Amino acid sequence: MFDIIRERLHQGYRTLNYPFVSPSISPRFAGLPSLEPTSCKGCEGRACLAACPTNALRITAEGPELDMGRCLFCRACEKACPEGKITFTHEHRLAAYTREALIVRGKAPEDIEQPGIRQARGTQKRDLSLFARSLKLREVSAGGCMACEADVNVLGTLIYDLGRFGIEYAASPRHADGILVTGPVTENMRAALLDTWQAVPEPKIVIAVGACAISGGTFKGSREGCGGVESVLPEGSVDVYVPGCPPNPWTILDGILSVAWKKHAAK
Amino acid sequence: MFNYRESVAWNDIPLVSMDALCSFAVERCRRNWRLLALFGVPSPSGTEVVCLLADASARLLDAVRALPGRAYDSMTPQCPQAHLFERELFETWGIRPEGHPWLKPVRFRPAEGGKRNARPGPGQADYYRVEGAEVHEVAVGPVHAGVIEPGHFRFQCYGENVMHLEIELGFQHRDAEHLVLTSPARLVLPIMENMAGDTAIGHATAYCTVVERLSGVKVTDRAHILRRLALELERLANHTRDLGAIGGDTGFLPTSAWNGRITGDFLNITSELCGSRFGRNLLCPGGVKWDLDAELCRSLAKRLRAAYRDARGSVDVMLESSSVLARLTGTGRVSFEDARALGLVGMAARSCGVAVDARMDWPLCDLDNGTLHKRMRTTGDVLARTLLRSDELNDSAASAEADLMQLGFSSGEEACRVSVPEAMPASRLAVAQVEGWRGEVCHVGITGKDGSWLAYKVIDPSFHNWFALAMALRGEQISDFPLCNKSFNLSYCGHDL
Are B300 and B269 in contact (CB under 8 A)? Predict the structure, then answer.
């Protein structure tokens, strides 16, 4: 008993006052992409397109645009671009309310890394204020490789302390306000995902976490389904997209807060 | 027979009859060889079966192949470690092992060349059933109460006692091995890192090693040290998390809470190497993509020492608690004989007294293993698996710290990446065995006539070890299941691929 108390004193208080204090993330972490407009004239070979593993880039008249819903944040395009027009900032808050808002077209604002409450990208498909005070989520892994799942799970630990925002993972869809889906949605999980979603009482929300859940990610070309959440659930059912492979836990926390808490606190 | 670090020409692998292949494998396994892989490869004259065997004492591999046709006599009755490989052959290639004691699909996927939608889904199959008026059945999953991957568990119970547990997986099947063959080269490494996301370093190391062995590329010592550092950090993070989870399931909450945080500390150290907490985008064929300078090595060593101190303290208070020890002792026992017969690997095997550890048996380089030892336990219960993890925490932390020191001292002396020729040599086979934190991650790559992949086989340690969980539950109470499950903590997607 004495040893436990002594160890407890050693382990200390670890919860971070997020979002008001910036979390410390590795300098090598790749966050929000920043794309400078360019004509791409000097690069006939389209080096960034050839380097991107998941075809997340497109070249338009104004220069490259990057779909964070497919991006693995592997920096291959950053290295490939001969003009250095593609860079990754350190900003971890990447969540968006619409699929379209995940597409990055320009330069990231200078003050992007300031801590505080920031609205998710895009506009909400519907009013989510009902969930602002308390949110119970049922997690469904549908082909997830356990990296997204681990970073979703870790939000329950004492650094992040999800409970202080009134958010919990529920053990049954019947007790949940919505589902949080990870993984590219395999053929063999199609029915289970649909059943779980249908078992959640209305009104309900859906959060898609990770490149796999958003677009199929690295498994997009699979013969076994793997088109992401929107290949199985009805169109427009996803309320928040959290990109990354896997997203940093702070990115996921920011994404969940964009439903449950931020709007409320911003008032 | 060939040296495990070398590739072998496809045409040099003897083509024998399927009966000869089976009796060869059975005979070798009797003499302490291990069945490393048994899988199908498409060929003009039908599906060929390749069998790879490994002898750790001599560090030799052996390969034979055969054309079985539609059916052959199963080797599982004589050699139980073939049971899942044979089921896989049956499901994927339609080759029936006659006399297999439990011939069911592994992943509930259509056969190669068959109709894509023709299948029974997982869970739509017959289960092993115990009949009797007082026998009842408990079904769990695929979607579980916690934040974990999907799988279905079917218990046959008499009162609270479990007579049999059948584990049915396949929900996670993403057809990853086939994707490796059809994807552009730049996508293959990310797919490898997603084979089992918590073993990204293990799978990436195995893939890079296969490519390097095929191409005959020698990686620098510095790259080997960086890879080992990442692999041991992966082990530290996962062992810490599992020890916390075992604490949680025994109701010892301090360790459960602290270890959740300390796991993050180890993952964040990995993130300092490459920006990803799971070591994504760190490795590449030919070495590693990111190097460390002396200053970063020093600061990471300091963080590592602090995290290790916290993990040690947190685990020690748990292991000093008599109520925890009482709960773990004798629970979920797997015998040495079963572990050997089923071909268990890694930590689960070592906790039953089976001395297998790819770091010592099949070293990836000539560097000294330093503080890494083959840690052994003999009781095969949850306690053994807990203490083994606790011992490996010490070894891995010391090894990672020593590696950081060495990388710091020798910074700038040697590159961490060499170039790899774009085209691989045609018609060759290479094998890589890497001790991931769960156990041996085995990859086999075979190139075709044009140097692209003809077949790529991934064998995650979970493929072998799920059956150990079923064995551990026999005769236990159903309430022991969560604890036993955590003590193995196997990968669903690593099994399902």
Answer: yes
